[in-house]
## 1
Amino acid sequence: MECTQKMGASEEISSFVLPLGATINMDGTAIYQGVCAIFIASCYGINLTFPQMLTIVLTATLASIGTAGVPGSGMMMLTMVLTSVGLPIEGIALVAGVDRIFDMGRTAVNITGDAACTMVINAIEKRKMERASKRNK
């Protein structure tokens, strides 16, 4: 919140958008789960069909919305993504060792997206206020 306010966002907007984004905007987690599912399929020599790939995208997106914002929670959701397309859950062991490092990257993507959204909403609200003030003159 402090950083977005330093960039010019109002306190009201940052205090609303950032907590909301922290809850439902987990783009980094969705990307990670999709990449992991495809990596695991590749390691096991499983060719994914187009419907399976779409299922991965949909499931990873929905799972990322429900993922808790704590380290390691993405691994639990990855089991759901793998199960949805019939991939072996044992494949999680292939990525478990580097998950903590990737978790930091996912967090950076998530926070950057939340901050960008805050700044966009702030700019839209500023324009709206400027138009309203011009109408009132």
## 2
Amino acid sequence: MWNYEKRLQYPIKIKKCDPKAAQIIISQYGGPDGELLASMRYLAQRYTMPYNEVAGLLTDIGTEELAHMEMICAIVYQLTKDLSTEEIKASGFDKYYVDHTLALWPMAAGGIPMNACEFQSKGDVITDLYEDMAAEQKARTTYDNILRLVKDPDITDAIKFLRAREIVHFQRFGEALRLAQEKMNSKNFYAFNPELE
């Protein structure tokens, strides 16, 4: 189904290690509002989406989120790949290092492992699209927070690109919501709620 291009959606070329930045940016890999969970959310929701145009959008954005996850992994990897033992200890990266060395592992900045309970797929058109819009806004906020804390342009340029894509995704899900609402009527608006049948 997918064709993989062996390049990042936006180039990542970080010149210096920064394990402190890596510890916060990793949240966009495996944190509650990160790219991995966004991809899982959208690619799961597409199966129960009754409107082909919206299911296609979920597939497109879910696929793009995988590309964003790859960018975040590249950022974290480049920020940590040449760390010395002294730098690992001094930066507080030692707790992560003990369990994962310098490998990539999905977790939030607070150290909580990625958990599929942090995203939802209900099978209800309206519920899922509001979930998706909220997810994009939460991811944008996380990128805003990263930009407040990180100042290296090698990092911030890529983060700004990712933040801009969250805004576009939010807008696209808003368009999908309007499209879905136009297609609904009193017979199918609450099709999954037997109380209202």
## 3
Amino acid sequence: MKRQNKHVFIAIMVIMSISLTGCAVIRDKIATKKGELIGQRFEISAYDHYANKTLTLDGTKVTVGLLENNANIDESSSGFQSGVLEITVNGNQMFQVGNTVIFAEDGLDMVEDFEVPEDITVDSGGGFVPIDRFINDIKNKIGKRKTIIISSQMGIPIGVYQGKDVYVTVPDNLPKMTRLNIDGKSLYIHRANYLILDTDMIK
């Protein structure tokens, strides 16, 4: 009972901190309203299945969308839905399928010389799972210290990003893509294997 009361107290404190410090989810909504892929400079890197970088593009006006066909629009269609990603960079068009693509806003760099730990030991203090999940969800909306380990679709490491204030979401309108707001900068990951860990988990 004492442990449950402790978790409830922590949850209340976390919720109160949202109003005092602002939260990542609100900042992220504001950023996307302004259009993080429009009017901002991004470095676009494409990788093959073996984590080899095959292409790098840089642009100040970048938009990303799905190149739809009839099957995407008409639910009664018997055809296959398009999974083609249409990328526009400074007015120039590129289509992409199958590659791992990372869109990193200018100023957001991979961590140099980061060694990915093979074994991670987490404190076995335990907790009440429903409340733990609730608290983690609130913390994610506020922004948490996180480490992002990205690998190719063959599981070969590509790189690592870290931030003190990280918010994670999955865009509704972009297939196979995850969006992260890392300390105010945008990172989009398309068709990649990745792990997103609380940095405190890594000793």
